[in-house]
Design brief:
407 residues, mainly alpha, 0% strand, Growth Hormone, Chain: A
Length: 407
């Protein structure tokens, strides 16, 4: 008995542009939301520790929703789940500025889609990963994921530049809080745009209509990767873009417009690095690409915390951004390459959810550290933990070669 849409035919390259455009819209929204979020919360009277609570609530909700979506994805139509996620994004933009108390905002942050991080976290990520993997042959997967990540990075960079819009609106006479609320309305419109794009996708399943379990033969490898990724993500959670922007605001009195310009340049550097990611992965392997670009990025981040001036701090942060995203397409492609097709949605979710949970825990101590001191302790701690992750990943998976790397 058939209880839903059948699997769409494999390799549908004409679906990829729709997913790319949707990723661009979401990235643009996340790009300005990560900067505006701490500024808005500060403007309505929240302390850094409370901003950390909101960030943790958002990331924790993202983790739990991603977990649920990943495990029901093999049993349900991916198009329907994507539509639901886009609708949630639109509702988040409308609901977020409607409340002023920390409890109410924390609930909206928990349920909604605004992500204080620049990473590839979110309820729609594993669904789009599964759709992309379904649409292309194996030998093209890393290149497609590199383009997907590149589009995300470029759109987030453009969104960071758009974070200067509230300053412009204030100069025209609009109230500061009203200017922030306008940007949340733009975020809602971007969610509606994603909804319209997802409606044009075909119905799709990643396997049988009633799979016995979301994960089967790949369970051991996926769980081991998830554990390692969670360590990296806890470190990343200490320096999510919202808290990094907050640190720059407090330590150097950086303006929102200047922060937007900085994160725009940082996003462009991250995007440029992803152009080289697939080329490096093809020649040196995905794991080597992940590790040997990640370690220097962590060193630069720790050096940024030690710099006495804004100019030197921003320089080392830009060096960090130039390398820190190069592992993203290699990691995404590696996960898809080491699991069978019917387990890809669940694998993407299981590897993303511990990352989200670990990231969700980190803003609490990071916010406390920022309350305690203006020194960049979160950056130093994050760098040490990330290098530890790189060493463990290399030790555990250097010998694991997907079939396309063997060829």
């Amino acid at each position: 008995m058939n209880d839903g849409p059948e699997s769409s035919p494999p390799h549908r390259p004409h679906d990829i542009p729709l997913l790319f455009v949707a990723r661009a819209l979401r990235g643009f929204g996340d790009g300005f939301a990560t900067i505006i979020l701490p500024a808005y919360l500060s403007a309505i009277g929240f302390a850094p520790g409370e901003v950390g609570v909101i960030a943790s609530a958002s990331l924790l909700g993202t983790a739990l929703f991603t977990l649920g979506v990943g495990f029901i994805a093999p049993r349900h139509d991916l198009r329907t789940l994507l539509l639901a996620g886009a609708a949630l994004m639109a509702c988040t933009g409308l609901a977020f500025p409607a409340f002023q108390t920390i409890a109410a905002i924390a609930i909206v942050a928990f349920v909604g889609t605004i992500n204080p991080s620049t990473g590839d976290l979110g309820v729609l990520i594993p669904l789009e990963h599964a759709m992309l993997a379904h649409a292309v042959p194996d030998q093209k997967r890393t290149h497609i994921f590199a383009r997907y990540s590149l589009i995300g990075a470029l759109s987030m960079a453009a969104g960071s530049l758009a974070a200067a819009a509230p300053d412009f609106l204030v100069r025209t006479g609009i109230d500061t809080i009203a200017a922030f609320k306008f940007m949340f309305a733009v975020y809602a419109l971007l969610g509606f745009g994603c909804f319209l794009l997802y409606r044009r996708l075909p119905h799709a399943r990643m396997g049988a209509a009633r799979p016995s379990a979301p994960l089967g033969p790949s369970r051991g490898v996926v769980y081991k990767l998830a554990a390692l990724f969670s360590l990296d993500s806890f470190a990343g959670g200490l320096v999510v873009q919202s808290l990094l922007a907050l640190w720059l605001f407090r330590r150097f009195n950086l303006s929102i417009a200047a922060a937007g310009s900085f994160f725009f340049v940082a996003g462009l550097l991250g995007a440029a690095s992803q152009l080289a990611s697939s080329w490096i992965a093809d020649r040196f392997g995905r794991i080597n690409t992940m590790v040997f670009t990640h370690i220097p990025a962590s060193v630069f981040m720790m050096l940024a915390a030690l710099m006495p001036t804004l100019q030197l701090t921003l320089l080392f942060l830009l060096l960090r951004f130039a390398l820190s995203s190069m592992d993203v397409p290699a990691r995404q492609s590696f996960v898809m390459a080491v699991v069978p097709p019917e387990e890809r949605a669940a694998a993407a979710s299981v590897t993303n959810v511990p990352r989200s949970l670990a990231t969700a825990l980190a803003p609490l101590p990071a916010g406390a550290l920022l309350d305690y001191s203006l020194f960049g302790w979160p950056l130093v701690c994050a760098g040490v933990l990330k290098i530890t992750y790189d060493v463990l990943l290399l030790a555990q998976f250097r010998a694991v070669k997907p079939e396309d790397e063997l060829d």
